[in-house]
């Protein structure tokens, strides 16, 4: 097999660290390790850097955390030279940013593209990992960092008859790089999560006719996106260090002005003005309206009622508004969507909404989609059906630790980690933003930086001690899993059939996957663990 890496990679098959994935996490990990004089190679399944932003090229794809905050903070030079065009940057700009980071830090010479890692096996005699790619190459490393992403493996939704469809099927997560022109076409979109909610308004503008198949309605808030005003940028630049530091103590790794007030202690008039004020600011600001929205059912109903009223006020047909209104899970317990013109799109003459909870899809036919009640004809179908979140990418690599144990088998009842960073029995293997860490509940870049820096510090510490291995103890892992579960049980999150709960993948154990105690708290815990000499880890 031809090794498709750089000259250095071809010449060397033994590294300090193998990094899997060249998204934001893998890129920063590589940069950080190089700075510590360590040798590292990155394997990346895609043809370029950027991870999420490399794959998800559907119309309207953009970040849902403000770009000033959803960006690297580790390099002042990088921060000074990059200027975001909009509050919520669109995918092409985010991809350009990833490319810029790769070029400015000369990362690509140690990234092997178009190469998927298939297996990682720990050898107990040498205390090294053997990592094998789909190119048939095997390299050896003391450590492995899984920077494989939390939402990187699409669910394999198999509709009966899908192979019969005579038109074109597109998946939002594997969008053609050259783009798609839907002009004059009849388009069906299946799914109403964030990917669909971002793409529907733009596809509707192009298509002759669009039909949206909704199984479960989602709550969405407007982004109110637009250019970043010069004074906002000037303030950010002047006070950036202070802002970046403050972000690290927030619950989500970004700013949304969280209130400490309890919902039912405020008057109904206050609810109306406070929710409206935050709706007008846009994005996740609304999540901070009251302190108990995520933990108190009665408080949550106030937010849900506000959202329902908003939908009714935007969508002209009351029957359509009713279908678009969530009714069977608490507000905010599925990932809140951030949109531009989503609800208003259903006022267009060329858009129809089909409730497939009431009349499920039976099959895809040669001409379109057949539900229990009707048949719809399409030239194209867009599947916006989601991801095997947080564990999907790790499950698909044959990771074998001590005693020949497969990680997938260890996790048969649900993922078990210590701090979302390591798994007992899998020495020297780290996960970035893995299950059991705040991850998808936060600004991913903030979380990625914290994890990468924690891992890099750990490797330096190990090197200083001349240690060969580090691994989570079973006791620490059990304690952490209990803590993650207890915190989740104190919230309303478990009441929704969300991908946070693994509920979107048939057969996946039902377990709240991220740590819901907040980023700031989590970061402090990670720091305390280090201060106590890597408490909960066995070092050999
Ligand atoms: O996926 P989803 P997504 N038949 O799982 C439906 C991030 N993200 O790609 O809810 C019919 O949310 C499914 O219905 P139901 C963000 O964290 C961020 O949209 O299972 N329908 C649902 O409506 C987000 O939360 C951005 O009943 C089926 C939809 O498909 C996460 O990625 C943008 C079905 C899937 O929604 C995932 O979002 C995009 C079936 N068999 C994504 N199977 C930003 O804004 C599934 N569905 C940054």
From TrEMBL:
Pfam families in alphabetical order: Pyr_redox_3
Keyword Oxidoreductase: yes
Keyword annotations of the record: FAD, Flavoprotein, Monooxygenase, NADP, Oxidoreductase
Gene Ontology MF term list: monooxygenase activity
Cofactor requirements of the protein: FAD
Gene3D superfamilies in the record: FAD/NAD(P)-binding domain
Superkingdom: Bacteria
Entry's family note: Belongs to the FAD-binding monooxygenase family.
PANTHER family reported in the protein's UniProt record: L-ORNITHINE N(5)-MONOOXYGENASE-RELATED
Protein name, as recorded: Cyclohexanone monooxygenase
